[in-house]
Design a protein that fits this description.
The chain is of the alpha/beta class. The chain has one domain: Rossmann fold (3-Layer(aba) Sandwich), CATH 3.40.50.150. Strand 9, helix 5 and strand 10 form a beta-alpha-beta unit. The radius of gyration is 19 Å and the shape is globular. The model has no long low-confidence stretch (mean pLDDT 92).
């Protein structure tokens, strides 16, 4: 069995032998019991912990499993499956716990439009949770800024609420390949921030179309999420970067809130790699 991923040391193909993947230069990467491989090189970061931690991953999984972001998930599945004209290789760059990866891969599979699917995230906790959830998807711990993927491998790249390493996305996409980017609009989750902070800043402006890509279409999704429990409110906060940038006193403000209506406002950008 060959891997979607390549050796991060020498860029050679990886082949499964037993419970490990090897390249022709005998670099070895063991398969974790959950089913993923760790291809993050030690020189890519000096930090001992990378990306989302276990608390953040659990909060996001618990929140998403209740269907609060299902409109976004369903729209992605419908649009991407409609665009797929052949069996495609799907790579989710910044896959987290695999919520969108699994959904899009399954949608493509139902149309017989999936050749293979893979997910990459710098967080071992997130990738572990994604691999454990199954779905016949290959997962690797790696940086989206230096992906262990051969050039012109992917027909579809997802980049959902994740760092935009657009040079890498361009490199790994086939000519004419599809890039799908999801990012928050300026008022996304603003009520959550208002509940915590004295001074609230709106999200950054909409990003431009990346160099080397042409815009096919874009789509806004705007709705109000009705959170009816403190658990859901706290989980939403913990799954955002805000939680780790907030002091204990401000975090405690949410403990008193049992109901909150929150703006969900995002944009999906569909782009083609120019030939």
């Amino acid at each position: 069995m060959n891997s979607l991923f390549i050796c991060p040391n020498c860029s050679c193909a990886l082949e499964k032998k037993g419970n490990s993947f090897f390249c022709e230069n005998r670099h070895c990467f063991d398969i974790a019991k959950q089913g993923y491989i760790n291809l993050l090189q030690s020189n890519q970061s000096s930090s001992k912990h990378h990306g989302d931690d276990r608390l953040m991953v659990k909060a996001r999984r618990d929140f998403l499993e209740k269907g609060f972001y299902s409109e976004l998930k369903d729209r992605l599945c419908d649009d991407i499956t409609h665009c797929a004209e052949k069996p495609s290789v799907l790579i989710d760059a910044g896959c987290g716990e695999g919520y969108y990866t699994r959904a899009v891969a399954e949608s493509l599979k139902r149309k017989n439009a999936l050749s293979a699917a893979g997910g990459i995230d710098i967080s071992k906790d997130a990738v572990s949770a994604a691999a454990k959830a199954g779905g016949n998807i290959q997962y690797a711990v790696a940086s989206v800024y230096d992906m262990p993927v051969k050039s012109e491998t992917a027909d579809i790249v997802l980049n959902i609420f994740a760092p935009g390493a657009f040079d890498e996305f361009y490199r790994i996409l086939t000519p004419g390949g599809l890039l799908v980017v999801v990012y928050p609009l300026e008022n996304h989750l603003i009520e959550l921030k208002q509940a915590v902070y004295d001074e609230v800043y709106k999200n950054d402006s909409i990003p431009s179309v990346p160099k080397g890509f042409s815009l096919i279409s874009s789509r806004e999704i705007k709705q109000v999420l009705h959170l009816e429990s403190n658990e859901d409110i706290v989980n939403l906060f913990k799954m955002t970067p805000y939680y780790y940038k907030t002091g204990a006193d401000d975090q405690k403000k949410l403990e008193r809130i049992s109901r909150l209506d929150i703006s969900f406002e995002v944009e999906i950008m569909y782009c083609r790699k120019t030939i």
